[in-house]
């Protein structure tokens, strides 16, 4: 007994669309994506940030020269740097004036001795000796006062210099920190802007690279909906960014749905029945026309 086999095949236009979709998918996925065009990038340091970093490095131990200089102003010889170069001239001039006045005093003793008739006598000698001793004491005292006064002035200046150097050493880190902070903030703003621009470029390149995949995915969604008798669902997503692998897998799943339906139809057997569908675009998963009244295929 001969066996008659009858196959119910999908409408020809569905088969054509499926083949077209498969051809496009194969062609698209055979081309490697240049992921370097939308790979994540990090904006480099802004020049102001680099300057802040350099200042930060230079600021380590920057106070040491001030401490060293301050130490030079202390100790038993620290005052010498502040001694007036005219100090000895002042001393010499003052002492010369004193000696002149002292000589006038001795001359006055001789005149008194002559007037009293004791010139060259013992009394005159005693008076001269007492005067000279007193004059020498006064001279030594004057010289000591001059030196003490000048030493005190030099000491005061050395102390002021010591305090100034210490203050500079203490305040320098704070001043540098202010500059570093200001440069860092300004540089951070510039870097953030550069990073945003890189991100925008990256996203634009990604969208450009993924556009064929999204377009083909929409095409496949339409094919699946057409086979199922339902309108396709269309949509696109910018964020989060799908990876090329995710997109390819999603596209392949659409293809699997299309050819899974076609394969199920090609494997069926039975007797072909004639019918005139009122809606040529309403088909069930087997490719058979659906009854627009809601009944089963006839």
General description of the model:
This protein is an all-alpha fold and 298 residues long. It has a domain at 57-205. It contains 6 helices and no strands. It has helices spanning 12-29, 47-59, 64-72, 87-116, 122-228, 244-266. The model is unreliable at 231-240 and 242-298 (pLDDT under 50).
Name the features.
disordered C terminus; 0% strand; mainly alpha
Mind sketching the topology for me?
Layout: H1 12-29, H2 47-59, H3 64-72, H4 87-116, H5 122-228, H6 244-266
Helix pairs in contact: 1-5, 1-6, 2-5, 3-5, 4-5, 5-6
What is the strand tally? 0
Largest sheet: none
Looking at the chains present, what oligomeric state does this protein adopt? single chain
The secondary-structure element order is HHHHHH
Give the integer mean of the pLDDT values: 75
Large-scale geometry = rod-shaped
Strand content: under 5%
Number of helices: 6
Portion of residues in helices?
A: 55-70%
Span between termini: 29 Å
Uncertain segments are 231-240, 242-298
Summarize the structure.
With 298 residues, the protein is an all-alpha fold. Helix content is 67%, strand content 0%. Mean pLDDT is 75; it is low at 231-240 and 242-298.
